[in-house]
Specification:
- The complex is a heterodimer of chains A (728) and B (52).
- Chain A folds into five domains: 24-108, Alpha-Beta Plaits (2-Layer Sandwich), CATH 3.30.70; 111-238 and 357-414 and 676-725, no CATH class; 249-341, Calcium-transporting ATPase, cytoplasmic transduction domain A; 425-453 and 558-675, 3-Layer(aba) Sandwich (Rossmann fold); 454-557, Calcium-transporting ATPase, cytoplasmic domain N (3-Layer(aba) Sandwich), CATH 3.40.1110.10.
- Chain A contains 25 helices and 26 strands.
- In chain A, the strands form five sheets. In chain A, strands 14-26-25-24-15-22-23 form a seven-stranded mixed beta sheet, with helices on both faces. In chain A, strands 6-5-7-13-8-11 form a six-stranded antiparallel beta sheet, with no helix packed on it. In chain A, strands 16-21-20-19-18-17 form a six-stranded antiparallel beta sheet.
- In chain A, helix 8 (211-245) runs parallel beside helix 25 (706-725).
- The radius of gyration of chain B is 18 Å and the shape is elongated.
- Chain B is mostly helical and 52 residues long.
- Classes of the chains: A alpha+beta (728), B mainly alpha (52).
């Protein structure tokens, strides 16, 4: 009995499996309204606990956990929001985040993947059946039996190919329309010519028919296509999940009270409330309130700037201390955040001329194959004046040279490599990113948020009098400002207890003040407010009564793995450059700490992009690692780019690879894997060529039987796939 | 050789049944959550009657 074409999608092809892209929309809950991300679930008890907890909430109709995607889909009454469900799941002991349903939509339906899978199943079914019929022909069936088997094969293969080879027909047709040759042109030619000559042979009751080769070819090539699609869809779905985690909401004043609305519904002139810790949803001006703004994602500056009524704010800035009321002056596409997209488009045009390895192989390969087939047809026709034999030989040459192994050579390696990198926390978004990584010789880092964690740490605690530190800790614990939190953390680490301070109040935009038991006023905050001279570094000042103020200096804490990655890259002979929008002092300090000789500070976004372009003009291949909006143009201009998951959405979109964890160490690993992958791809091309060199003379000499064609094709495809799996 | 006239149709029909079964599993979303489904079977929750 023929083994049927059942091919369950291989779980091994799914990198890390947080994101199987296939068919998430038509879940058993067609009207699932709320989706929650559950990064911590891992067992069947977790599924049951979460589902039971969710279904116990009044208003929830049903809940279903998807362990592969680590998501829960909840079907609930229309007035329920994710905010009602999150505490319930948290109470059950699981980490939970809301996912924006709109941003998930694109990956929800994976029609293309399902379509390819169906075609592959049909091709697999047909090739198994035809192969069995062919085995009996090869082992000696003759005369009427052979003809009958050929006719049955034809009856199976024609409809099967008409359905399953459509992707190749379409792609070859669009290439020919544009007067180009791609890998699909020789494929389609081989399939069509094999079918036509085989049908002709069958009608004349000839010995050789290539129905089995034509359908097996389609099946193997669809396998390559499907692998390719899966890798890309998995990365796209994980990237979209990152976007969906940032649900765009804003608090708009309606009739004097703030109400939560979607950012998309905001209009120019709306009054918005931005709470401390919140991000500006729009461009605008402060109407009311005092606070400080963290602009590091936009400009790379680490020193917060004061926000007072009348001051302009840009989308993406983070409000630090006090609540601010702002009036929107530009929303949506008009905000400065989106205007940066123009700069990105210009920068990207420099990269679009990259030719993938597969494309350049096809450019060499496709004309060669056609010329070879045409020559063998001509040669045989001139030698024998027999069109039938000549056409048969030409079909055999096309089938033997058909880039079956070439079609698998790249997808098999990229699937293996991206799966490996995904387990290390790197998400490969672009199909050619691995190949481009292999060429990198210069690595450019951004400072704030990339090499540093974007969280300050006290540098001069030991130089400050412990009594003052105790007072500072007491004041710092009364505030959520990042500098205050850093002081409290450092004091705690040094084992200095908080002094007794009463009546602590936070003055938004300035600092915290209180009273000591002996009646002296104490203040911790900005230099002018405490009565000191502001310095160039990030500082907080402590003033006790009338005494001279004491400064706490801050430096950005290094991101874990930053020092190691710089050392590893330099040891691997890479040129490491630091390019930051921050002021000279902190940048020089960081460069010295990490041993980076080549650095540049106060770089504007266009300066960064220009510097990258200049390096590229010198013939260097630059890897840009950055997270801020000011890096976006540079990320797009670089040969290949990486951004951490904490980066702004715009930066993640512009980069080829997203770093999922907080550790930077996988970056050097990625470069190594990229090199290894390209080495394997080239090896695969060589293996496929060796098979061709052995088999083509046989085919051109007219010695190639359908059995040899089937063997050459299967063995080369399998050896190429196995070689890809050797990737370490 | 007349046995072929039974065997070939039978083998094609059996293969076709497999193909249809696969198409059915794809269409009814049975590959959505391979990891979760393999764990769910271990839970005792709906052993006596199917989930409503």
């Amino acid at each position: 009995m023929p083994a049927d074409g059942v091919l369950p999608p291989s779980a091994a092809a799914c990198p890390g499996c947080i994101a199987t892209p296939v068919r998430a929309a038509e879940l058993p809950l067609p009207d699932a309204r709320l989706s929650l991300s559950l990064p911590g679930i891992h067992c069947q008890a977790c599924i049951a606990t979460v589902e039971r907890a969710l279904e116990a909430v009044p208003g929830v109709r049903s809940a279903r956990v998807n362990l592969t995607l680590r998501r829960a889909m909840v079907d609930a009454a229309p007035d329920m929001t994710a905010a009602d469900l999150i505490p319930v799941v948290e109470a059950a002991g699981y980490e939970v985040h809301e996912l924006d349903q709109g941003a998930l939509q694109a990956t929800a339906t994976d029609r293309a993947g399902r379509d390819l899978l169906m075609r592959m199943a049909v091709a697999g079914f047909a090739s198994m059946n035809v192969m069995l019929l062919s085995v009996s022909v090869w082992s000696g069936a003759d005369a009427a039996t052979r003809d009958m088997f050929h006719w049955i094969s034809a009856a199976i293969v024609f409809p099967a190919i008409a359905f399953s080879a459509q992707p190749f027909f379409r792609s070859a047709w669009s290439a020919l329309k544009a007067r180009r040759l791609n890998m699909d042109v020789p494929i389609v030619l081989a399939i069509v010519l094999a079918l036509v000559t085989s049908l002709w042979e069958t009608m004349l009751s000839g010995h050789h028919a290539y129905f089995d080769a034509a359908i097996a070819l389609t099946f193997f090539l669809l396998g390559g296509r499907y692998l390719d699609h899966r890798t890309r869809a998995a990365a796209r779905s994980a990237a979209e999940e990152l976007t969906a985690l940032e649900v765009p909401r804003a608090l708009r004043f309606e009739d004097g009270a703030p109400r939560e609305v979607a950012v998309a519904d905001l209009r120019v002139g709306d009054l918005l409330l931005v709470r401390p810790g919140g991000r500006m949803p729009v461009d605008g001006a402060v109407v009311e309130g005092h606070s400080e703004l963290d602009r590091s994602l936009l400009t790379g500056e680490t020193v917060p700037v004061a926000a007072v009524p009348g001051q302009a704010v840009s989308a993406g800035e983070v409000n630090l201390t006090g609540p601010l009321t702002i009036r929107a002056s530009a929303v949506g596409q008009d905000t400065s955040l989106h205007r940066m997209a123009d700069l990105v488009a210009i920068a990207e045009s420099g990269r679009s001329n990259y030719n993938s390895l597969a494309d350049s192989a096809a450019k060499l390969y496709a004309p060669g194959v056609h010329i070879l087939a045409a020559l063998s047809f001509l040669g045989w026709y001139l030698a024998t004046w027999d069109g039938r034999t000549a056409l048969n030989v030409a079909a055999a040459v096309l089938i033997i040279t058909c880039p079956c192994a070439l079609g698998l050579a790249v997808p098999a390696v990229t699937t293996a490599a991206s799966g490996r990198l995904f387990r290390q926390g790197l998400l490969i978004k672009s199909a050619t990113a691995l190949e481009r990584l292999a060429a990198v010789d210069t690595v450019v880092f951004d400072k704030t948020g990339t090499l540093t964690a974007g969280a300050p740490e006290v540098v001069n605690l030991s130089a400050v009098d412990p009594g003052a530190v105790a007072v500072a800790r007491a004041l710092a614990e009364g505030s959520a400002h990042p500098l205050s939190r850093a002081i409290a953390r450092a004091a705690e680490a040094a084992g200095i207890a908080a002094a007794e301070v009463t009546g602590i109040v936070e003055v938004p935009g300035y600092g915290t003040e209180g009273t000591l038991p002996d009646g002296r006023r104490v203040r911790l905050g900005r230099a002018p407010w405490v009565g000191a001279e502001a310095g160039a570094q990030t500082e907080a000042w402590l003033g006790i009564g009338g005494a001279a103020p004491v400064a706490f200096g801050f430096a950005d804490r290094l991101r874990p793995g930053a020092a190691e990655v710089v050392v590893a890259l330099q040891a691997a002979g890479q040129d490491v450059i630091l390019l930051s929008g921050d002021s000279t002092g902190p940048v020089a300090d960081l460069a010295r700490r990490l041993g980076i000789a080549n650095w540049e500070a106060e770089a504007l976004p266009q300066d960064k992009a220009a510097r990258i372009a200049e390096l590229a003009a010198q013939g260097r291949h630059v890897l840009m690692v950055g997270d801020g909006l000011n890096d976006t143009a540079a990320l797009a201009a670089a040969h290949v780019s990486i951004s951490p998951a904490s980066a702004l959405d715009a930066a993640r979109v512009a980069s080829d690879i997203v770093l999922l964890g907080t550790d930077l160490a996988p970056v050097s690993e990625a470069l190594r894997t990229g090199r290894e992958a390209v080495k394997r791809i080239r090896e695969n091309f060589r293996i496929a060529t060796v098979y061709n060199i052995v088999a083509v003379p046989l085919a051109a000499a007219g010695l190639c039987t359908p059995l040899i064609a089937a063997l050459a094709m299967s063995v080369s495809s399998i050896s190429v796939s196995l070689n890809a799996l050797r990737l370490k | 050789m007349s046995v072929l006239s039974y065997l070939i149709p039978i083998s094609l029909v059996l293969g076709g049944v497999g193909l249809l079964a696969f198409v059915y599993t794809v269409r009814s979303n049975q590959y959505d959550d391979p990891e979760g489904d393999s764990r769910r079977i271990l839970s005792k929750d709906w052993d006596d009657r199917p989930k409503p």
